[in-house]
Each structure stands twice: as C-alpha cells, then as structure tokens.
Specification:
With about 140 residues, the chain is mainly α. It contains two helices and no strands.
Amino acid sequence: MGERLMALQDADLERIGRYVQSQLPGWLEASDRPLPGVQVVEKLTRLEDAILSGQELMRSELHAQRELMEQRFTSMQKQMDERFTAVLREIEVRAAASDKRFESVDKRFDDMQANFARTQWLIGIGFVVLGSLVSMFHLLG
C-alpha cells in the first residue's frame, strides 16, 4: 500500500499552530476532562480541606478529652477532700478517746497516790501506837 506523504512547509505549520492555540481553550472547556494542573489544584484544595477538617476534629477531640480529664480531676479532688476530712474526724475522735483514757489513768494514779498516803499514815500511826505501848509496858513493867 502506498502511503501518501504530504509535504508541509513552515508557513503551513505556523498557521496550524495559530489555529490550534486559538481553539485550544474552547476545546478544553468543552471537554469533560479538566487540565492536569487544574486536577492537581483541585486535589490539593480537597487535601487542604481534609487536613483542616481533621485538625478541627482533633481540636474538638482534645477539647473533649481535656474537659473529661478536668471532670475526673475535680471528682478525684472532691473524693480526696472527703477522705481527708473523714480521716481528720477519725483522728479527732481517737484523740478525744485517748484524752479520756489519760484522764482515767491520771485519776487512778491520783487515787492510788491517795491510798498510798493513807497507808503511810496508818503505818506511821501504827508504829507510834506500838512504840508508845512498848514504852508504857517497859515503864510499867
């Protein structure tokens, strides 16, 4: 088969180039496929929107986590305050009981001291009476 070769001159190529350049924007607008550069820009725009929405989602999640942690901290602080107060009350009750025990020990010690003093007096009086009796029997006898 014979191929037909067509000889194009530079002037013909220039005319074809000018025609294509003048028609190219219209052809591209009419086509369904956007320019590759436009696709990249659209993808970058969608990517930027996705990143921004992801950042906003992360911020809201962090904010929610912070609020949850603050609530838990407040709850734990309240529980600790209640426990501390309960421990202080228990210490006060035990201190009062210890004071009562010390008072009763002091009273028993005072009673014992008084008994010991009475016993000393009785022994002393007994020795005086016995000494007096022995002296009287010695003088009389």
